[in-house]
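Our platform keeps sequence and structure together, in a single record for each protein. Nothing more is needed to write down the fold, since each code stands for a local backbone conformation. An entry from our holdings is shown next, in its original layout:
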Amino acid sequence: MGKIIFVTGGVSSGKSEFAENLCSQLECRDSVVLYVATSIPFDFEMEQKKADHQLRRKDKSWFTIEAYKSIPTEIGEFCYSNSIERSARKVILLDCVTMMISNLIFDRNAEFDVDDVDERAFVEKKVIMEFKTLLNFVKSENIDIIFVTNEIGLGGISENKLGRYFANLEGKVNKMIASESDEAYLVVSGIHIKIK
């Protein structure tokens, strides 16, 4: 069983950079590093952020998987197609939980209706199950994983229902991952603080 590391903080606080440095520290000669990018770039701003992240990693021999659901299956298929043995030690950097949740919310229904109680409950159950499945997978394999997320609950209460629903759901997911983690860090203005 590997190590679960949780990295949280505000938007553009330096979380990804810090997590990449942690990942480099965990990397060793016989390990395979998989960067799981969960965002779907819909506009120029997101494309630019993706390019900035890729530029920071350009000198690293890491593999990138672009996925926001069924992560254990995606990892398995990627390793199989790249002849990476199942038993090989893996270091995974998942960046980020926030984008993964957002994509999962709208995955089934682009017109997600936050007022539909049944739809809300279905989506919440689906999101929680995705992360539980991933955590169980990591615990059963030779994997170290770093989760990068946003601490959006510090930004005040949203004036719209979707924003409040999202913040509450991300709060639940963040608490679940943090409770399972071996280490947890808060990044503020580029400075990391170990909180667990």
Summary: The domain at 4-194 is CATH 3.40.50.300 (Rossmann fold).
